[in-house]
Write a structure and sequence with these properties.
alpha/beta, 2,3-Dihydroxybiphenyl 1,2-Dioxygenase, domain 1, 2 domains, 9-stranded mixed β-sheet, 8-stranded mixed β-sheet
Length: about 300
């Protein structure tokens, strides 16, 4: 039986202006400072026990250093490593004690497109804070979306090797994968190998709209939304960070009953991507697409 990762834990980004990106994620996006170590900034979400959900470091170019996933135990880390190694994936580091600020036990490797990832267990957990109902702040990291030149092959690899399960397809070009009851923690669509966006769960559609007002007040341009997707039934607003990363506030993401869920193939169309049609009202608003491969592909991350 394939062992599965249990959650999306963090995304590590390299940016040309770490001060601007850090200020955005802390003061505007409303993540919380967690650690600073070796020039890196770690930020946490108020509703998540993960020690951090974003890691930032300074670099000459914008790139995605690393995507982190959780495992249930050290023995699961070892089993997942065996699955990754058995797939022929390029290994960065074997299971060992981690020396980052949250500790833990884990390994690193590359997926078939060259994205570096880490699987970790036993990292120091945060106490989950109480979120005031009126505050629009991320509860947790929700999902990532990747582009791939071989999206169907990459989808199968994540299912066979890291234990993701199929939730839904949008036509035959976008797939939604889960590793816990959340409808998706990872989605993949065609394109050059790169990160499309990082999504964060907020408490409600009210929180999402308050967040939209705060972004507008801070001069952060709305990229697409507000709207509601069909796959996952989640609401959305998308924005661009000061260094050009695409981020999403989302709410109401569907939860899956593993015993009864049947994957669906949603018919592509404007009404499928945006049920309400509101995301298309503002001229120029549209979904984000990365047009070039991530510069971090096949590079051993810091």
């Amino acid at each position: 039986m394939t062992v599965s990762v249990t959650d999306l834990q963090y995304v590590a980004l390299a940016v040309p202006d770490i001060a601007a990106e850090s200020d955005f994620f802390r003061d505007v996006w409303k993540l919380e400072p967690a650690f600073e170590q070796n020039g890196m900034v770690y930020l946490a979400a108020i509703g998540s026990s993960h020690p951090y959900v974003i890691r930032l470091r300074q670099d000459e170019v914008r790139k995605t250093d690393l995507i982190g996933y959780s495992a249930a135990s050290r023995s699961d880390v070892d089993a997942l490593f065996a699955q990754v190694q058995g797939s022929g994936a390029k290994i960065i580091s074997e299971p060992a004690e981690l020396d980052g600020p949250a500790g833990g036990y884990g390994f690193r490797a590359f997926d078939p497109d060259g994205h570096a990832f880490e699987v970790v267990a036993d990292s120091a957990q945060r106490t989950v804070g109480e979120l005031p109902s009126a505050l629009a702040a991320p509860l947790r990291i929700s999902h990532v979306v990747l582009h791939s030149p071989a999206h169907k092959a990459l989808e199968q690899w994540y299912r066979d090797v890291l234990g993701f399960r199929l939730s839904d397809w949008l036509g035959d070009f976008m797939v939604f994968l889960r590793c816990n009851p959340a409808h998706h923690r990872l989605a993949i669509l065609p394109g050059p190998p790169a990160l499309n966006h990082i999504a964060f769960d907020v408490a409600s559609i009210d929180a999402l709209m308050r967040g939209l007002a705060r972004m507008n007040g801070a001069g952060i341009e709305l990229q697409w939304g507000p709207g509601r997707h069909t796959a996952g039934n989640n609401t959305f607003t998308y924005y661009t960070t000061p260094n050009g990363n695409t981020v999403e506030y989302t709410s109401d993401l569907e939860e899956v009953d593993e015993a009864t869920w049947q994957p669906k193939v949603h018919t592509p169309g404007l009404e499928t991507m945006d049920q309400w049609g509101t995301g298309r009202i503002i001229p120029g608003n549209k979904p984000h697409a990365e047009m070039a491969p991530d510069p971090a592909l096949w590079q051993v991350p810091a």
